[in-house]
């Protein structure tokens, strides 16, 4: 009577089977019911959002998450620990080997469709209600959807109190990796330099000389660096050493936040470029560093790779852009660094990165990509046809030439934008992805890297210097302050609510104030 892929039918069937099964006196185990539940006839393929075959079968994973929901466990850790202690149930569910926590998290948030998630949650509650009705032991109260934290929101005082403690912990983790190689006999402690750099980021448009004078009075330190000494020490660094220090700081930061279950949301990253304020001075001798912009001006430019989507939006790496560097070199460099820190599934980039060689590089790494394509003659012609046909969506295959008779194959997905202001073919956007066409919906997450840039630039010290190392250090350190803010916010949310939401619980201003206190200037 039903389509084998119907989730409504599956939910109804689970209720029917549970009602009959628990009516027998010897059937008093929720675990046993979930293991015995007949799912062979169910077609779960339409609800599997993965593009390629996976290690674990959908039916096995559905049973596992039915068990998780039945027990009301908030995170996958409890499920894994339970299965490790129950090898018989592990086998009955269909696991030859247990997946790790990260795999289970991605299964629920990336592989299962939202409709399947809802079906599992409702079905688990139905199983509990039927078991409870017949007097069987149930893992939790079926009237509650989960064992959650108190529903009352934490007060501002609670938030700032915990943020104060966590900010201190995080700053003590991240800052020590930065070194100026000044030797051990210097009178001014190296931490004073990083305190000053943080201080400069606390105030808008505050340059080193003026900031150093203010820092001298505001700081509780006996000795503080002068502005010119601070700049000279930073100029003595190299781009490579700054990136190495940043990488180690992020590794420490990730080690701290990865102790939380929610950090396994890592997987979706965005790559983009940004630029400093337009440079209006003399570029002589700096033409390779102060580059032309799309607005016809000149500016220092940087590229970053950042976690986006449901993950905490840490800036995993930052690098300066020099004249002559290709987009492919930039992408390869940033991906190498990011993949050394976290698991990466998909890469999002804007149309400036729509080169077939970049797409091939990402594909060769086994990663997915979603990139909009610039519309040339053939794309414009197709969009005009779709407009005449009144089609909102169209998918076609395209071979992109790599050279030497080699090609990169990728689908082109045409989508008409909702509420488009134009009435011609420009209503359509064209995307490329090496995953299923539905993966295009991930592209909306790319804008998080744009909003991140706005805050990062707020954290940057002001300067008129043309020194390339100094300019990049200011940007990299601001990226670190931004990442510290987001890491502190995640840890505070988990500690106070048990969950992580993208909207920050503490503001950037809160964190800067606490860092200000931590650096001894509060």
Report what the structure shows.
This is Transposase (TCE33). By secondary structure, the chain is of the alpha+beta class. It has three domains: 7-134, no CATH class; 156-239 and 462-519, no CATH class; 267-451, Alpha-Beta Complex (Transposase Inhibitor Protein From Tn5, Chain A, domain 1). It is 47% helix and 12% strand. It has 18 helices and nine strands. The chain has helices at residues 7-21, 30-36, 58-71, 76-85, 87-93, 101-111, 114-133, 156-174, 190-202, 208-218, 227-235, 239-257, 327-341, 356-364, 377-389, 447-458, 468-497, 508-518, and strands at 268-275, 290-292, 298-307, 315-320, 346-348, 368-372, 393-403, 406-416, 428-433. Strands 1, 2, 3, 4, 5, 6, 7, 8 and 9 form a nine-stranded mixed sheet that branches. Helix 8 packs across helix 17 and helix 9 (190-202) crosses helix 10. The chain starts with 6 loop residues before the first helix and ends with a helix.
Describe the secondary-structure layout.
Blueprint: H1 7-21, H2 30-36, H3 58-71, H4 76-85, H5 87-93, H6 101-111, H7 114-133, H8 156-174, H9 190-202, H10 208-218, H11 227-235, H12 239-257, E1 268-275, E2 290-292, E3 298-307, E4 315-320, H13 327-341, E5 346-348, H14 356-364, E6 368-372, H15 377-389, E7 393-403, E8 406-416, E9 428-433, H16 447-458, H17 468-497, H18 508-518
Parallel strand pairs: 1-5, 5-6
Antiparallel strand pairs: 1-3, 2-3, 3-4, 6-9, 7-8, 8-9
Helix pairs in contact: 1-7, 2-3, 3-7, 8-17, 8-18, 9-10, 9-18, 10-11, 12-17, 13-14, 16-17
